[in-house]
C-alpha cells in the first residue's frame, strides 16, 4: 500500500472490541489498513481470555484507548433493520431502543452509517435455523420450523460482516445511509436451509411446524429467558420475513455486495460444509 493510500484511510475506533462482532471488526479494520484503536474500560481485565485478545490486538498493530473522538458514528445495532421490525416483546423493546438512538443521531446531525447485517451465521446455522436448539448443533431427526418456513431470511458470517463494515468506513456512498447486507447466495427460507442441509448430510429431517399463533403464545406465556428473546427475534425473521420483505430504498440505503463485489463472502453452503 502506498503512503498516499495510507493517508486516505480513516482512523477507526472500535467500541466493544472484545465482543462477539467487535473482535472481528478490529481484525478486519487492521487487515484493511486502518489505523485502529479499541476503546476499553480496563487494559488489564480479570478475564484471561480478554487479556489474550487485547494482547493479540496490540501485536497486530492496534492501540488501546480511553478517549473518544468520532468522525462517523456506526452504532452497534447489528441485526435486522430496526425500523422494519414486526414482532413482540422482549425483542420489540430492544429494537425500539435502537430505533430511538437513530432518531437522536439524525436530530443532532451526527454523520453516521447504520449497519444492517441481518442474521449471525454462527448463531443460527449450527442448529440449521432451529432457534429452540441454538448452541446444540445440527439436529439428528427432527427440527422445529416456525410458521410455514417459507419466509426468506439473510445469514451473514461474522468475519464478512466485519469486512463489509470496515469497507464502508471511508465510503461516501454509505455516509448517512443504511448499509444492508444481502448476499444473494445467503438469502434462504428455513425450508431452503433445511433442504440444503439434508442434501449435504444425507439425512431427512422431520419438520415440526409451529403456527404463528402458537409461536406468539409460546413467547408470551411459556418461554423463559433467553428462549423468549430468541423466539421473538425468530418471529420477525423466520415467520414475518422482516429481513427481506421490502426493497432497499436507494435514498436511504445501499447493499453491501453491490458496493463491494470484490469481497468473496462465505456462502451458507460453505458454512454448512464446516458442520459435516
Structural descriptors:
11 strands; 11 helices; globular; NmrA-like domain-containing protein; disordered N terminus; NmrA-like; 16% strand; 276 residues; three-stranded parallel β-sheet
Could you walk me through the main structural features you see in this protein, from its secondary elements to its overall organization?
With 276 residues, the protein is of the alpha/beta class. Helices cover 39% and strands 16% of the residues. It contains eleven helices and eleven strands. It has a three-stranded parallel beta sheet, covered by helices on one side. Helix 3 links the parallel strand 2 and strand 3. Helix 2 crosses helix 6, helix 7 crosses helix 11 and helix 8 runs antiparallel to helix 9. The longest helix is centred in the middle third of the chain and has 17 residues. The protein is globular and about 50 Å long. 36% of the residues are buried. The N terminus is likely disordered. InterPro entries: NAD(P)-bd_dom_sf (IPR036291), NmrA-like (IPR008030), NmrA-type/Isoflavone_red_sf (IPR050608). It holds the Pfam family NmrA. It comes from Eleusine coracana subsp. coracana. This is NmrA-like domain-containing protein.
Give a brief rundown of this model.
The chain is built from eleven helices and eleven strands. It has 276 residues and is α/β, with parallel strands linked by helices. Strands 1-2-3 form a three-stranded parallel beta sheet, with helices on one face.
